[in-house]
Amino acid sequence: MFLFSFSLFSLVLFRFVRADDVQPFTSYDNDFVDPDFIAAGIYANTTGGAQETITSWAESLSAWGPWSVTNKTILAPSGNKNDYMSWAPYFWPNCTGVGNTTVLTPQQIWVTCPYIDLDGQFNPDRLTIDNIGEFFNLSDSILYNALAHSFQNKSSSVYSQNIARFVDTWFLNNDTGMNPNLNYAQMERGPTGQVGTHTGVLDLKGMVKIVSGIMSLRKSNSTDWTANMDAAMISWTQRYITWLETNKLGIEECASLNNHGTFCFNQLAALKLLVNDIPGSVNASNTYFNGIYKGQINSTGDQPFEATRTHPYHYRNYNLAAMITSARLLKYADPTSDPWNLTTKDGTTIRDAMNFVMTVNPNTHGEGDDVAEIYPNIAAIASTYGDPNGTYVAFLKAGFPEYAWDADFLWDQPLAGDGVVTTSNSTGSGSGSGSGKSAASTHRGLGVLSAAILALLVGAVVGW
Ligand SMILES: *[C@@H]1O[C@H](CO)[C@@H](O)[C@H](O)[C@H]1NC(C)=O
Ligand SMILES: *[C@@H]1O[C@H](CO)[C@@H](O)[C@H](O)[C@H]1NC(C)=O
Ligand SMILES: *[C@@H]1O[C@H](CO)[C@@H](O)[C@H](O)[C@H]1NC(C)=O
Ligand SMILES: *[C@@H]1O[C@H](CO)[C@@H](O)[C@H](O)[C@H]1NC(C)=O
Ligand SMILES: *[C@@H]1O[C@H](CO)[C@@H](O)[C@H](O)[C@H]1NC(C)=O
Ligand SMILES: *[C@@H]1O[C@H](CO)[C@@H](O)[C@H](O)[C@H]1NC(C)=O
Ligand SMILES: *[C@@H]1O[C@H](CO)[C@@H](O)[C@H](O)[C@H]1NC(C)=O
Ligand SMILES: *[C@@H]1O[C@H](CO)[C@@H](O)[C@H](O)[C@H]1NC(C)=O
Ligand SMILES: *[C@@H]1O[C@H](CO)[C@@H](O)[C@H](O)[C@H]1NC(C)=O
Ligand SMILES: *[C@@H]1O[C@H](CO)[C@@H](O)[C@H](O)[C@H]1NC(C)=O
Ligand SMILES: *[C@@H]1O[C@H](CO)[C@@H](O)[C@H](O)[C@H]1NC(C)=O
Ligand SMILES: *[C@@H]1O[C@H](CO)[C@@H](O)[C@H](O)[C@H]1NC(C)=O
């Protein structure tokens, strides 16, 4: 109840202090946007606000690029600057038995102190090498540039040019390109360390977003995505798939029972789409749904492998985002499939996992700041399964009244509910199909009122 009282309060605050304008940038945990949908470029005329947000995100992210694994001063043990590298984020040195830490250099600490795992506690020195942060920005920037490009209805735009430049720098260029392996990802340090761990495969979960973006350019025949680039990217991806399927680290990661396994399989399913191996993509998704998925949602809708983590609210939403992405990938690769109705061994579906997370109070484990992670999941579930009694939309309106200006509102359509009005505050006359701005008869005043009423009701609706 506390959560929802708080939400009502913040709803009112938001309405007074914030314009109905672009949303601040958020990196969604995971998502796959149908490339055919992006290539067609035809969007609901209620998505003008989301379009403005997407274009703004594409532009602000692009200012940080191009990115390259070679942007680091510390090399992997291979000595090869083109090898991707990151350090295990939750591992900390324990120098107690080693010596006086104030006289050890960082390099001495890395190789002499044993490292211990403190789940959920980020070691800040992981950012000394930021290949992971660069890759995150790269993957978001490719997805949002692809969407922004689609609003232009042109074969070339600054957005498609950005993608070509960023893909070339990160993957293809001989000098700056990444070698197609994760041998040194989430490396463990210490006297027996300096080796990558299988959890490092998770660093590249953003490949799903990249595949969405690249495939949409390919399908829309953008002149900036040339046949040569397409062939080079397919070749890179084939070599990386081989690494993922044959290297011990890749094999171990896809054998994980929790979110690591979900993300591993959906990364693989997306990579196979990129190389035009549709049966291979379907097979990767089916291996997940017939395998570890069966144990991931129990009869109460909870996710046992995430509920026991130190940040259970985050991890439940994190794996939920990955399950949603896996379902989208399977449905895309095999339109006759029915992933949304697939049940676990306890008879539950992805929607049951969503309904359970909605009952969890993030403050129980001090995760109030992570509440934003639930909203994209709710939008995805509501648009996929429908929202006959308005429960999902009521939850969104109560906690995140600006949700219709968020990027995912563009593709989480139709977001069923009570007729929420989702236009931007611009007054363009476009049809919403490629103009980047939609006709904007806003019902904002009504929106505030109905949102407030719904927020009052939501304790009753969601409090079950
Ligand atoms: C949006 O499209 C619907 C049909 O899809 C139409 O009925 C409605 O008038 C349009 N609204 C505006 C503001 O153009
Ligand atoms: C990263 O590397 C690329 C390619 O060399 C370069 O263009 C870019 O400026 C570098 N970025 C930073 C922040 O050093
Ligand atoms: C740190 O190392 C010391 C000495 O080797 C050991 O006694 C202690 O248990 C270690 N601490 C943790 C948290 O592992
Ligand atoms: C650790 O080394 C520093 C610098 O030499 C010194 O000031 C400090 O007293 C030492 N601490 C211990 C516990 O030996
Ligand atoms: C990534 O983008 C964020 C803004 O969203 C920025 O703060 C950060 O410095 C960027 N990092 C890199 C390596 O581009
Ligand atoms: C990049 O490397 C490949 C293989 O080593 C070589 O065939 C190609 O000519 C190189 N391209 C450039 C632009 O140097
Ligand atoms: C792209 O080109 C192909 C082959 O020429 C054509 O079939 C397809 O309709 C084009 N797609 C778009 C979105 O223009
Ligand atoms: C489902 O999993 C949660 C978290 O582990 C646990 O608390 C709950 O008891 C489980 N439900 C059943 C019916 O086993
Ligand atoms: C679940 O199955 C029912 C019955 O076949 C179907 O109507 C529905 O569309 C499926 N749900 C989803 C989200 O695909
Ligand atoms: C809302 O609708 C869903 C799907 O039809 C149903 O399973 C659920 O019980 C409903 N919830 C309430 C509170 O009516
Ligand atoms: C939307 O309205 C706000 C003020 O209400 C304004 O600052 C912003 O520029 C407007 N956005 C657009 C795209 O017109
Ligand atoms: C794109 O532009 C062409 C004309 O150049 C037009 O026929 C088509 O309808 C536009 N598509 C969209 C989705 O607006």
List keywords for this structure.
binds 2-acetamido-2-deoxy-beta-D-glucopyranose; disordered C terminus; lyase activity; Chondroitin AC/alginate lyase; lyase; signal; 464 residues; Chondroitin_lyas; disordered N terminus
**What top-tier CATH class fits best?**
Mainly Alpha
Give the CATH topology.
Glycosyltransferase
Number of strands: 2
Biggest sheet: strand arrangement: 1-2
Signal peptide: 1-19
Keywords: Lyase, Signal
Organism: Mycena maculata
Domain Alginate lyase: 68-359
What does this structure look like?
Keywords: Lyase, Signal. It holds the Pfam family Alginate_lyase. GO terms for molecular function: lyase activity. It comes from Mycena maculata. One of its GO terms (cellular component) is periplasmic space. The protein is mostly helical and 464 residues long. It has a single domain, classed as Chondroitin AC/alginate lyase (Glycosyltransferase, Alpha/alpha barrel), CATH 1.50.10.100. The protein contains 17 helices and two strands. The protein has a two-stranded antiparallel sheet with strand order 1-2. Helix 5 runs parallel beside helix 7, helix 7 runs parallel beside helix 10 and helix 8 crosses helix 9. It is globular and about 65 Å long. Bound molecules: 2-acetamido-2-deoxy-beta-D-glucopyranose (NAG) (12 copies). One 2-acetamido-2-deoxy-beta-D-glucopyranose binds next to helix 5. The site of one 2-acetamido-2-deoxy-beta-D-glucopyranose (NAG) has 3 residues, from loops.
